[in-house]
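STRUCTURE REQUEST FORM
Protein name: Enoyl-CoA hydratase
Source organism: uncultured Segetibacter sp
Requested output: structure tokens
Priority: standard
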Amino acid sequence: AIDEVYKNLEIQSVIITGSGTKAFAAGADIGEFVGLTAEQGKYLAQKGQSVFMKIEKCAKPVVAAVNGFALGGGHELAMACHFRIASANAKFGQPEVNLGLIPGYGGTQRLVQLIGKGRAIELMITGNMIDANTALQYGLVNYVVPSEELLDKAKSILSVVNSKAPIAIAKCIEAANAVFDETKNGYEVEMNDFGNCFGTEDMKEGTTAFLEKRKAEFKGR
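Status: completed
Returned output:
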């Protein structure tokens, strides 16, 4: 599905959510873990990390609308999105220690990035869940809304985002991701992306529209 988002020019942004109100995603099928070797476990993590990295690096905004439980791999999926909105009944957690495991789809890294090392380690080594308001306090989610308003909230934010310049949006995401990429200098990425925006039709349209006091019509070019 994420490959389709990359390729389809008609898609401007994405909302990932669960069906119903009970669970966003509860995580992997534990039965599949039984009998796996260390090498097979590593391969499983590699596959999961690869998919979630594609979400994180997607040039189009990907928002997690978390309804109900987001545990284990489901929580890792939510964290791979660019930001998260939670329903009031949402629960978050990494319970892998209860199985003698650790998060394997990037959870140990993204959780530290999002809520800080101390809180992240506590959440991982206790296996405890936190509720939506605690997640908001920790900075894990941007908003908490009633379940029936969850999708409307996500759509409302993305309707604003979709009216902006697509190339500039992509560059914002790229530069923000560079903060956590040890192979890149984030300031250099920002400098290059800022400069490259000057070569786009959207930048010319945006500045002209501003000076002419009209709404810009961006084309993504």
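Reviewer notes: The domain at 2-161 is CATH 3.90.226.10 (2-enoyl-CoA Hydratase; Chain A, domain 1). The longest strand covers residues 62-66.
Form closed.
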